[in-house]
Amino acid sequence: MKGIVFIIIAVIFTCPLYAQNSDTYVENEFIIWLEPGVDAAKFAVNSDEGIVPKRLLSKRLNIWLFEITDKIEQRNIKMSNRSFSQPD
Fold first, then answer.
1. 57 with 64: CB under 8 angstroms?
2. Selected residue with higher pLDDT from 49 and 45
3. One-character DSSP codes across 12-67
């Protein structure tokens, strides 16, 4: 019995675990879980960034896929500058 448990534990810890595959990542898209009753289109209009709701992922939980539509190049430059200016 101890041998079976050891084998199961060894298999679990030796198998590679992947949280996110690189081929499933889509740049300029993100998921937001909105509170019940919040309209995705109104949320997008009231946000500081240029975003639009792309697809409803879960109606019951009000989870939406949003897409960033404007200032993509400016945001990329800002994010790359931010990574250089952080203190060590």
1. yes
2. 45
3. HHHS---SS-GGG--TTEEEEEPPTT--HHHHHHHSSS-EEEEEEEETTTTEEEEE
pTM for the complete prediction? 0.56
- For 37: left if phi > 0, alpha if psi spans -120 to 50, otherwise beta; the answer is left
Place of tokens 């879960």: 58
Distance spanning both ends of the chain, measured CA to CA = 50
Longest CA pairwise span in the chain (Å)? 60
**More confident call, 3 vs 54:** 54
Mean pLDDT, the chain, whole residue set = 80
Q: Round to whole Å and give the CA distance between 72 and 82.
A: 15
Residue 71 has pLDDT above 60, yes or no: yes
Q: Which amino acid is at 33?
A: W
Could you give the CA distance from residue 76 to residue 43 in angstroms, rounded to a whole number? Answer: 23
